[in-house]
Amino acid sequence: MLNISICDDGALQRALVVLLIHEYESKFGVKFNLYQFSSGEELLEKFNEDRNLFDLYFLDNRMKKITGLEIASYIRQRNKDCYIVFITASGPQDDFKVVSPLRVLIKPAQQEDITKILDKVLEGRIGRSPIR
């Protein structure tokens, strides 16, 4: 079972991503462990407890104290095998390339994009495409 981190200081944005992931779970009969964080500091505290806990990170870029890019850089230096996806309303996307994100999405997230991302991560983690 994949562990997914969702980090956004906006509760509605987190709720939307959770809803889209639940739609995927219902449609394809899979289950994910979802962890929500309202700040980068909360996420990094959990990350430092277990650097390999999360398979996939959904990160907002603009948050109050620490940016999603700063979080991703910290994570990427310590875990090269995880997947990182930015869901943001801001910034030039070229800045994100330094952390090799799987995708950069513009808010609001869309079901089609979340489906493609989850398909890709499942394929990479279990070595086969999801059954359709």
Summarize the SSE layout with pairings.
Layout: E1 3-7, H1 11-28, E2 33-37, H2 40-49, E3 56-59, H3 68-78, E4 83-88, E5 103-106, H4 111-126
Parallel strand pairs: 1-2, 1-3, 3-4, 4-5
What does it look like?
- One of its GO terms (biological process) is phosphorelay signal transduction system.
- InterPro entries: Bact_response_regulator, CheY-like_superfamily, Sig_transdc_resp-reg_receiver.
- With 132 residues, the protein is of the alpha/beta class.
- It has one domain: Rossmann fold (3-Layer(aba) Sandwich).
- Helix content is 42%, strand content 18%.
- The protein contains four helices and five strands, in the order βαβαβαββα.
- α1 crosses α4.
Name the features.
132 residues; alpha/beta; Rossmann fold; 4 helices; globular; CheY-like_superfamily; Sig_transdc_resp-reg_receiver; Stage 0 sporulation protein A homolog; Bact_response_regulator
Principal-axis shape equals: globular
Q: Could you state the oligomeric state of the chains shown? A: single chain
Sheet with the most strands?
5 strands, parallel
Structural class: alpha/beta
What percentage of residues falls in helices of 4 or more residues? Answer: 40-55%
What is the third-level CATH name, the topology? Rossmann fold
Radius of gyration: 14 Å
CATH level-1 class: Alpha Beta
Percentage of residues in strands? 15-25%
Going by CATH, the homologous superfamily would be Response regulator
Strand line-up across the major sheet: 2-1-3-4-5
CATH architecture: 3-Layer(aba) Sandwich
Taking the alpha carbons of the first and last residues, their distance comes to 18 Å
Counted up, domains total: 1
InterPro entries: Bact_response_regulator, CheY-like_superfamily, Sig_transdc_resp-reg_receiver
Keywords: Phosphoprotein
Protein name: Stage 0 sporulation protein A homolog
Pfam families: Response_reg (PF00072)
